[in-house]
Each structure stands twice: as C-alpha cells, then as structure tokens.
Amino acid sequence: MSDESKVWPTGLTVGEAEELHRYLISGTRTFGFIAACAHFLAYTLSPWLK
C-alpha cells in the first residue's frame, strides 16, 4: 500500500521535494538581498536616522 518513493506527509517524491526546496532557498535568498538593499537605502537616505 505504501509507496517508498513518496516522502511522507506531502506525497512528493524525493526528487520533487529537492526541487521544491531549491526554489524555496532561491526565493529566500532573493528576498533577503532585496530586503537588505531596501534597509541600506532607508538608512542612508533617511535624514532622521543620521
């Protein structure tokens, strides 16, 4: 009854889970880079923070 190629509890195969994880990590890195740039710009361009 149980399929050994599926990862519990998602029902994804190991390959599908690894692919999804790569996209998640890539998106998190992109978001973090954009957030760091926005924080740097807000710090340098805001007169009340100096």
From TrEMBL:
UniProt membrane topology term: Single-pass type II membrane protein
The UniProt record lists the keyword Isomerase: no
Stored InterPro entries: Antenna_a/b, Antenna_beta_CS, Antenna_beta_dom_sf, LHB-1/5, Light-harvesting_complex
Keyword annotations of the record: Antenna complex, Bacteriochlorophyll, Cell membrane, Chlorophyll, Chromophore, Light-harvesting polypeptide, Magnesium, Membrane, Metal-binding, Transmembrane, Transmembrane helix
Highest taxon above the source species: Bacteria
Function: Antenna complexes are light-harvesting systems, which transfer the excitation energy to the reaction centers.
Protein name, UniProt field: Light-harvesting protein
